[in-house]
Specification:
Length: 446
C-alpha cells in the first residue's frame, strides 16, 4: 500500500478554481511553496480538495510536530469552546492560561523561578522578549546573527538577516541592532580549517564589543540554537557557550529563539538542551498548540516581572481555547516516548540524507539536529555555488508526486524536512523515496 494517492495532477480542477480565487483576493506578496489546496489532515497525511492524499514534510512550517489533529488536543479545544472562547487576560483570568504558564515555567531549561507571557505569533514573542530585556537592563541595544530569522514585524524584520526575500522594499529599519557573523560549518572561510573558522567566529564576538557596540549598552543577545529559515544551521556548543559567558560577564540577557527548533523538533523538548546551556529567556511558538496560533516567552521571574503593570499584553494572548489545546500538545510532546520517537525519525532521515550526499553531486550538504533536517543544493560540490533554481525544480517535481515541502536557506537553495512526528516509518520512507526520485531526475537531467 502506498500512502500517497493521486487522482488528479496537483493542482487538480477544484484546487485550481480556489487558487484563482486566492490570486484574485489575497495579495501576491503572500507567496506559497506549493499549489496544494487542503481539505483535511490527520497525523502526517493531508487530503486536498480534489481527493488526493499527500504526505506532509512541511507541517505548516514546523507547526505540526505533534501530528495533524491529535485526538486529545482536539478534545480539549472542543471542550473549552463549549465553555468560554475568550475573556482576555487583561480583563479576567482563565485557568487554562495559568496552567499553561505553570507548565512552561516547569519544562523550560533553568532551575530558577520563571514566569511566562503568552502571545499569538512568533514575532510577537520575540518582540516581547526584547522589550522586557531592554526594560530590565535599561539598555538600548541587541545583538543578532547573520542567517537569523525572527519574524516580520518592524522590530523582528530589523533583526532578521536575509534581505532580498524578507526585507526588500520595507526600509528603514530599527536602530541599535548589531548583526554578527554566525558559524555555518558547511561554508568556512577559504583557507581556514573548520576549527580555525569556529574559533574565528567566537573571536568575532569579542571583537564586536570593540568594533561595534559597548557591552554596557547591550540588553540581549538573541540566537536561534539551530537557525531555521537560515537553513537549519546548528550553532556549535562552543559558540553558544561563548555567548553565555559574555552575557554573564557583561550583564546581558541571553534570549533563545526556539520558535522553530522547540517542542521536540530536535529530539529534545528544546534545542538548547543539547548544549546544556540555559538561556535567560526563551521564545516559543509554532508547534506549541498543534497548529493553533499561540506563542510564549518564558524567562527568569525577576526579569519578566520588571515591566510596570500594563506595560505588556494584548487582546488575544492567553486565549482559553488555544491554551487548553497547548496544554495537551505540550503534555504529548514532552513525553519521553514522544521525544525518543522524534530523535529516531531524525536519525532515519539523517542516514537517508547522508546517502544522497554520497550519490548526487548536486547535494552539497545535509545537516540539522534531531528531526530538524535539510538538504542543500549546489551547482557543484567543489565550488558550493548555491543553486536556488534547481532547488525549486526539485521541490516542484517532488510535490507533484505527492509530498508537501518548503525551501529554506540564506540562498533559498535548501529543502527542509519538518515532518510531523506522528509519521509512521512506512510513510517516512515513502516520502523520502519521492524526494529522492526528484533529486535523481534532476541529477540525470544534468
Ligand atoms: C526562529 C523563528 N523566529 C521567529 C519566527 C516568527 O514566527 P511567526 O511567523 O509566528 O511570527 C519564526 C517563523 O518562522 C522562526 O522560525
Amino acid at each position: 500500500m502506498t500512502y500517497i494517492q493521486l487522482h488528479t495532477p496537483i493542482p487538480g480542477p477544484k484546487s485550481r478554481e480556489i487558487l484563482s480565487r486566492r490570486a484574485a483576493n489575497m495579495p501576491a506578496g503572500l507567496a506559497k511553496s506549493t499549489e496544494i489546496v487542503v481539505e483535511k489532515a490527520k497525523g502526517a497525511l493531508v487530503w486536498d480538495v480534489d481527493g488526493n492524499r499527500l504526505i506532509d514534510f512541511a507541517g505548516g512550517i514546523g507547526m505540526i510536530n505533534a501530528g495533524h489533529r491529535p485526538a486529545q488536543v482536539v478534545k480539549a479545544a472542543k471542550q473549552q469552546l463549549d465553555k468560554c472562547i475568550h475573556a482576555c487576560t487583561l480583563v479576567t483570568t482563565n485557568e487554562p492560561a495559568v496552567e499553561l504558564c505553570e507548565l512552561l515555567n516547569q519544562l523550560t531549561p533553568g532551575n530558577f523561578p520563571k514566569k511566562t507571557l503568552l502571545s499569538n505569533s512568533g514575532a510577537e514573542a520575540v518582540e516581547n522578549a526584547v522589550n522586557i530585556a531592554k526594560y530590565y537592563t535599561k539598555r538600548p541595544a541587541i545583538i543578532v546573527f547573520e542567517g537569523g530569522y525572527h519574524g516580520r514585524t518592524l522590530l523582528t524584520m530589523s533583526m532578521t538577516s536575509k534581505y532580498s526575500l524578507f526585507k526588500k522594499g520595507y526600509g528603514s529599519f530599527m536602530s541599535e541592532i548589531y548583526r554578527l557573523p554566525a558559524p555555518n560549518m558547511y561554508r568556512p572561510f577559504q583557507g581556514m580549517s573548520k576549527e580555525q573558522y569556529l574559533q574565528h567566529s567566537i573571536n568575532q564576538l569579542d571583537h564586536a564589543f570593540i568594533a561595534q557596540v559597548d557591552p554596557s549598552a547591550v540588553a540581549a543577545i538573541v540566537v536561534e540554537p539551530v537557525q531555521g529559515e537560515g537553513g537549519f544551521v546548528p550553532m556549535p556548543t562552543a559558540f553558544l557557550q561563548k555567548i553565555r559567558n559574555l552575557c554573564d560577564q557583561h550583564g546581558i540577557l541571553l534570549i533563545a529563539d526556539e520558535i522553530q527548533s522547540g517542542f521536540g523538533r530536535t529530539g529534545k523538548l528544546f534545542a538548547m538542551e543539547h548544549h546544556g546551556i540555559v538561556p535567560d529567556m526563551i521564545c516559543m511558538a509554532k508547534s506549541m498548540a498543534a497548529g493553533l496560533p499561540i506563542s510564549a516567552v518564558t524567562g527568569r521571574a525577576e526579569v519578566m516581572d520588571t515591566p510596570h503593570p500594563g506595560a505588556i499584553g494584548g487582546t488575544y494572548g492567553g486565549s482559553p481555547v488555544v491554551s487548553a489545546a497547548a496544554i495537551e500538545t505540550i503534555k504529548l510532546i514532552s513525553d519521553p516516548k514522544f521525544l525518543k520517537r522524534a530523535a529516531q525519525i531524525g536519525e532515519m532521515i539523517r542516514r537517508t540524507l547522508e546517502g544522497w550526499k554520497k550519490r548526487y553531486p548536486l547535494v552539497g550538504d545535509v545537516r540539522g539536529l534531531g528531526g530538524m533536517r535539510l538538504v542543500e543544493f549546489v551547482k557543484e560540490p567543489g565550488t558550493k555555488t548555491p543553486d536556488p533554481d534547481l532547488t525549486l525544480e526539485i521541490l516542484r517535481d517532488a510535490v507533484s508526486h505527492g509530498i508537501i515541502l518548503i525551501r529554506a536557506g540564506l540562498y533559498s537553495n535548501c529543502i527542509r524536512l519538518l515532518p510531523p512526528f506522528a509519521i509512521t516509518n512506512e510513510q517516512l520512507r515513502e516520502g523520502l523515496r519521492v524526494l529522492e526520485g526528484a533529486i535523481e531526475r534532476a541529477h540525470e537531467r544534468r
